[in-house]
Amino acid sequence: MSHQIDIEKVRADFPILSRKVNGHPLVYFDNAATSQTPKVVIDAIVEYYEQYNANIHRGVHSLSQEATDAYEQARETLRAHFNAAKKEEIIFTSGTTHGINLVANGFASQLKAGDEVIVSALEHHSNIVPWQMLCEKTGAQLKVIPMTNSGELAMDAFHELLSDKTKLVFVNHVSNALGTINPIETIITEAHKKGAAVLIDGAQAAPHIKADVQALDVDFYVVSGHKMCGPTGVGILYGKEEWLNKLPPYQGGGEM
Q1: Which of 10, 71, 200, 208 is 20 to 30 Å from 121 at the Cα level?
Q2: DSSP output for 181-231
């Protein structure tokens, strides 16, 4: 039996869709770039500012404690969603790009001239430029997995690129341009055989695929809230505890 979706009921969850553009009801198809925000999320943001806006982890007064509890509950919710082993492995960021740069900055202390970093030809600029900058800084070499005519990664080439010099492999879970679902399970397994760490960009995958980071055995996984019906300016970096302890702090100050 086919499941009928009540389109008007779904649209009613998103206040912005009551707008008219050029005299017509708004039809928004750019969700892969930024999804619209449902009323329940807007209400939660408003409730925070109206009821318990305060510094987290920095006060003993009631509002600070309530804000801290809400913050940590959000972290636990995300830990459960992605099946991280510990909630401390979930780091709040400003988005996927921030998470990628955080890891790239940390690996500046792990790489030396002659080491290699592998990315794919399917990557977003946010997934290429930080690694180019990292290689310029450390003397490491950037290797690129080519793409086939069908828009998929050339896995034979990936296996040839992998070597004992490979220290980090970075690919997206789902391509932002083509929608290609990459074989990240194979990529993670093969990279680990060479002792390389793996960072997966889950920005496009997370709204559709519930990644189990423990089952994947991935070292880092990054997502953005604004592609998952969340607010802009928030995202998460999942990192295995052992790797988070190896990498130096990204910045100094509170919540470093």
Answers
A1: 208
A2: B--HHHHHHHHHHTT-EEEEE-TTTTTT----HHHHT-SEEEEEGGGTTS-
**Residue 126 · residue 102 · CB < 8 Å:** no
Sequence-distant (6+) residues with CB within 8 A of 240 are 89, 219, 220
**Structural tokens at position 226:** 């604004």
Q: Domains in the chain, start-ordered, CATH in brackets? A: 86-246 (3.40.640.10)
| This prediction's pTM | 0.94
Strand 141-145 with 116-120, pairing:
parallel
Which pLDDT value is given to residue 2?
62
- One-letter amino acid identity for 139? G
Tell me what the mean pLDDT of segment 166-181 comes to.
94
With 0-12 / 13-18 / 19 or more C-beta atoms within 10 angstroms meaning exposed / middle / buried, residue 160 is exposed
